[in-house]
Amino acid sequence: MKRSFLIVCATMLLFAYGHAQKKAAALPAQKLTDLAYGSFASSRMDVFLPAGRNAHTPFVIILHGGAWTLGHRDWGMRTQDSLAAHGIASANIDYRYADDRTTHYKDLLKDIDSVIIYCAAHADEWHTRKTNFIMNGESAGAHLALLYGYTSSNSISAIIAECAPTNVADTNLLNYFSKDPNAIRVISKMVGATYIPSQLPGAAFIGASPVYHVKNIPTLFFHGTDDLTVPYNQALQLETALKSKGYTYKFVPMPGAGHDVGFNTPEGRKKIYTEIVRWANKYGSL
What is the pLDDT of residue 198? Predict the structure, then answer.
């Protein structure tokens, strides 16, 4: 009698599992465009959901570049299309711009918080995960991806960064940017403080620098060896910080590439997207 009861229970569990699997396999791909995730005019995003998704499908938050003061989620569309083609969910977002007054990097990080809250709240409806998102960004977006991953209380499963400024408290970087009034101005807007060349950068610059906050979150990052916008040494500093603590990371130098990090060539794109998809599937399926 007991054995018969166990057989019936096992059969029911197998049936329920099979039904769930069929339901997941039947889910069509969806593209949800221009969703409002917050109350600001810039709080908009496009969400791509692959067919057959479930709560274990990797989900990437894509942050565009633009020196923290310009740009649009259209700049991340190529990455979003590539992720969708490989069965990976994503939210490609706009966020507030840093300015001289009240909006600085912490406010931009709050926008990412709002995205994650929105995506988690719609997880049951979308058949997606509620936690362990992946952060991805390029240039200023890569800086935010790193900083958010390392400082947020939310559980982030992995970080992917392309040509990121990683240490804005580095006087070599700040003096390099000081040669261009526009470059040093956008750093000041993002940090919310002014760099004075004769003085050491203040605590605000350290707070805005991912290298000072590294966590053991699997981090994949790319950098062009000939980048004249964000010097290659910024990637080496991040590698040193992660390596010194024995954290999981992979650094992919892009020989001869500038600030485009290789995206503008078919070979570069193939290399970058192959690595991104592999990293997302390895660390984003938990």
Answer: 86
Q: Where are the domains of the chain?
A: 28-283
Record the pTM: 0.91
Q: How many CB atoms lie within 10 A of CB 101?
A: 8
Please report where in the chains the tokens 């989620």 appear, as a residue.
73
pLDDT, tens digit, 9 for 90 and up, residues 17-71: 444 444 556 899 999 999 999 999 999 999 999 999 999 999 999 999 999 999 9
For residue 216, report the phi and psi dihedrals to the nearest 5 degrees: -85, 65
CATH code: domain 28-283 is 3.40.50.1820
Confidence of residue 183 (pLDDT cuts 50, 70, 90): very high
